[in-house]
Amino acid sequence: MGFKMGIVGLPNVGKSTLFNALTKTAAAQAANFPFCTIEPNVGEVSVPDARLDKLAAIAGSKQIIPTRMTFVDIAGLVKGASQGEGLGNQFLANIREVDAIAHVLRCFEDGDVTHVEGRVDPVADAEVIETELMLSDLESIEKRRAGLVRKLKGNDKDAQQQDRLLASAQAVLEEGQPARTVEVSDDDAKAWKLLQLLTTKPILYVCNVDEASAADGNAHSARVFEMAAEQGAAAVVISAQIEEEISQLEADEADMFLEEMGLSEAGLDRLIRAGYELLHLETYFTVGPKEARAWTIPAGTSAPKSAGVIHGDFEKGFIRAETIAYDDFIACNGEQGAKDAGKMRAEGKGYIVKDGDVMHFLFNT
């Protein structure tokens, strides 16, 4: 399991440039005019993980298969989108399909690149987008609650739960707060997620800065980080221009370029790591002579459900999981060394998989 992140923002903030760089494609036309992205572009990237290369080297794996992350480049929203302005609700609907929102904010000054609002103010830009998402949610809630009236009269329990949750969301939205601020009980968590409200999506603010600010950010990005901290959201600094240049280079050249720019890693790595933390995701590995492979799971996932990420039959017929911690696998120079040192564990159905676990699942067919 990877995850799907929607790239949103006002027109001309660098969304498509970033998308092109991250996916190393020209699928999204990057141009200096609004609405150059007419359909949502989808691209997949490999999730970089140095641990996978080390595991493969020890096991002599013929193939290395990283986990994947999907980016969806969604056309620029403008003020009034919830009422159909610009390209309107078509794009709000695309946001419902993603796991998290990467909200790209312009944090650079450049007179040659127009701004749809005629000024550079990333916090105000963020408020424009958030307002449109909240207005869209309010409209959706009102329609859905009206559609539940008949079922409520019949004392339908699912309808009662849904209406109660929608009412909670409506209350905070009418106070100018996103639906993600609602405290939801464990019993309501599944039903809450099924509501698919736009403002329940976790937010990662992506501060698109100029090249000179790529290492430490600037005054604009500092304001965004303050805003993110107040909201309990995440933020990351990236120069889309640098990422675009890196995407055209070979690995060795890219490393030299990053070093010259005073950067320890590519923006893609920071973005993915921030996304994983935002969604509470972890990685486990399967390793053998044929392949070394990474698998993504939500934190707190049981061994059987983790096995099910590979194939549903693995979960259904789960017997046990032979498990080696990543550090033990490396220290013992592989599976056999870990076995000899007593570092391989047989874990049952109640085991919660940990980040970095090297797993081998036994199951009944």
What does this entry show, briefly?
This protein has 365 residues and is α/β, with parallel strands linked by helices.
What does this molecule look like?
With 365 residues, the protein is of the alpha/beta class. The chain is 41% helix and 19% strand. The chain is built from 15 helices and 12 strands. The strands form 3 sheets. It has a 6-stranded mixed beta sheet, with helices on both faces. Residues 25-38 have low confidence and may be disordered.
SSE diagram, text form:
Blueprint: E1 3-8, H1 15-23, E2 41-46, H2 50-59, E3 63-65, E4 68-73, H3 89-95, E5 100-106, H4 122-147, H5 149-153, H6 157-174, H7 189-194, E6 203-208, H8 219-231, E7 234-238, H9 240-246, H10 251-260, H11 267-279, E8 281-287, E9 291-298, H12 303-310, H13 312-316, E10 318-324, H14 326-331, H15 335-340, E11 345-347, E12 358-363
Parallel strand pairs: 1-4, 1-5, 3-9, 5-6, 6-7
Antiparallel strand pairs: 2-4, 8-9, 10-11, 10-12
Helix pairs in contact: 1-9, 4-6
